[in-house]
UniProtKB/TrEMBL annotation:
This is RNA helicase. SUPFAM superfamilies: P-loop containing nucleoside triphosphate hydrolases (SSF52540). ATP-binding RNA helicase involved in the biogenesis of 60S ribosomal subunits and is required for the normal formation of 25S and 5.8S rRNAs. Its EC number is 3.6.4.13. Pfam families: DEAD, Helicase_C. Residues 352-367 have a biased composition (Basic and acidic residues). The lineage of its organism: Eukaryota, Fungi, Dikarya, Ascomycota, Pezizomycotina.
Amino acid sequence: MKRKLDQNDEPAPGENAVGDEKISHHAGGQIELSFSDFDLDPRLLQALAKQKFRKPTLVQQKAIPLALDMKDVLAKAKTGSGKTAAYVLPILQSILQRKRTSTDKLVAALILVPTRELADQVLKVVGEFAAYCFNEIRAVNLADKQSDTVQRALLSGAPDIVVSTPTKALANVQSGALSPDKLSYLVLDEADLVMSYGYEDDLQKIAQVIPTSTQKMLTSATLSSEVDSLKGLFCRNPMMLDLEEPDEEGEGVAQYYTKCGEDEKFILAYIIMKLKLIKGKCIIFVSDVDRCYRLKLFFEQFGIRSCVLNSQLPVNSRIHVVEEFNRNVYDIIIASDEHEVIGDEDSPQAEKNGDEDGADRKKETGKSRPKKKRKTSRRDKEYGVSRGIDFRNVAYVFNFDLPTSSRSYTHRIGRTARAGRNGMALSFVVPKDLYRKHPPTTTETAEDDEKVLSKIIKHQEKKGKEMKPYTFDMAQVNNFRYRANDALRAVTKVAIREARTRELRQELIKSEKLKRHFEENPTELRHLRHDGELRAARTQPHLKHVPDYLLPKDGRKALTSEEIGYVSLRKHDAKDRKGRVFRKGGKGRGTKGARRSDPLKSFKMKSKGK
C-alpha cells in the first residue's frame, strides 16, 4: 500500500500503511546519550574514540537502538548527519555477537549504494569502525571494475559484509556467487538515489530473493516517491524516522546568488579565486564534462590550480581525488554533476509529486512540458558527486552552472556545512535576456535559470532559509574584463578536446598500470597529483599576476558589497609552521603585526662576523 505525497514530495501525515510507525522528531531538548549507552562491543567503542566520535548524532541516537532490536528502519536525515554510522555500527555489533556463539561462515550483511565512490567510502567506514576486530570481520567491495572470476573469488570466503551497487549484486546472485538465503541485514543507502539512477529493475529482482526474515534499513536525505516505492518493495512494517536537526547559531549554509552574463561567469570566477574574495576549500559544480575542462584551462592561465572530477575518469582516479581533497592536497575541485535530477519539477509527474508550477502549467495548457534530454556521452553510469560522497571541510559550494531543479540544488549545497559546521553557497544565474549572448561560453541548462532560481528560493523559504544577492561593483569588475576575455579566447574547442584526451590518457595510466605498485607501496600514492596543467591554445605568463592598477582604490573589498571573506570551519588563532600563534595586531618576534627593521632607515645593522 503506497502513501499519498504532499507538496514537498514527502509522505503525507496520517497516510502511513497499516502497521507502519512514523517518528517525527525535531531536535531540541533531547536527552544527551553516549555510544556506551548502546552497549556496544568495547572494540567498537575504542574505534569510535580513535575516530573522535564524541557523542551520537540525532539519527544515530534514534536508529541504532531500533536496529539493535532487529526492527526494520527507514531513516530520513539531512546530508552529513551520520547515517552511515547509524547502520554500520549495529551490523558490526550483531556480527560480533553471532561469532561468539557460532562458527558458521556466511554473508551477514548486503549494503547497496548508488555509486562506486559511495561504495568505496562505506567500505572505508566499515574498516575504521572494525579496526580493533578486523581479524573477525571481513568486508568486500563488488562495485569496482573487476572480472567475474575475481568477484567470485572475493565471495568464495563468505565475507561478513558485502558492499555493492544493485547491478553488481544482482549479477553475483544470478551467477550463484552470492547466496542471499541466510542474509541477516540488507541496507539501501541513499535510497532515493538508488531508484533515480535506474536500478529499479535490479532492485525488484533482488527483492524477490531476499528472505522475509532479513532485517532491512533504508536511509535517505528525502522521503520521496522513490523511497516510498522501495519501502513497499522491501519492508513490511518499518519504523520511520523523519528527523530534523536545526542549525546551531552561526552554523549552516549562507546562500547567495549573482545574476550575470554567460561570459561574466568566467570573469567573476577569476576575480573570486585569484583575489581570494572567498577563501577556503571549494567544490565548483558545472553542467557537463566539457565545462570542467573549459574552466580548468581558463583558471590555469591565471595560475589557479584545480583538479577535475567527472564520470569519464577511471574510478580509482576519482576516489583518489576525493581522498587527496580531504587531506587538503587540493583546494579546488571542478565537478560535473551529470546525475542530478533533470527536469524533475517540470515533468509530467509534477502534479502527482506536488509541484505547484508544473500543476499550474498543466491546468492552463492542458499538458505539461516534457523532460529535457541532455546529450549523453561515454560516461560511468555509477558515478555521482552531489550526493553521498564525504567531502570534508568544504568552505563553500560554487554553482558555476545553476542546477535544473531545487532538489538538485539542495543536494549540491549539502557538500558544505556538514557535521554542525558552517559554510557558504554561491550560485551564478543567467537572466533570460542574456542567454546565448556569448555563444562560446553558453550552456543549454542556463536557459531556465531564472525560473529555477525562483523555485529554489521558494523551496528554501519553506525550510526557513534565505538566499541573498551577492552583488559586484561591475564598474570595478570591468578592469579585469580584457584579461579574462583574452584568456577565454585561448580556450578553444580543439584545446578542450585535446585536454580531455590527454587527461584521460594520463589518468588511465595512473589508475591501471600503477595500481599494483601502489598496492605494494601505499605511501607513494600521495605523490600522484591530479591538478597538473593541461595547457590552453596559447599561454601568457603575465596573466598569472594581478597588477595594482587593475584593483580599485579601496582594494579588493571594493569589488563586492558583501564582506564574506574567509569561511572559517573553527574559531582559532592562525599558526605558522613552527606552531607560533599569530594574533591580529600582535607585535614582536613571530607575530603577524611585527615590522622588520630596515637597516637603511635605522642605520642599525649587525655584522655577519668572521
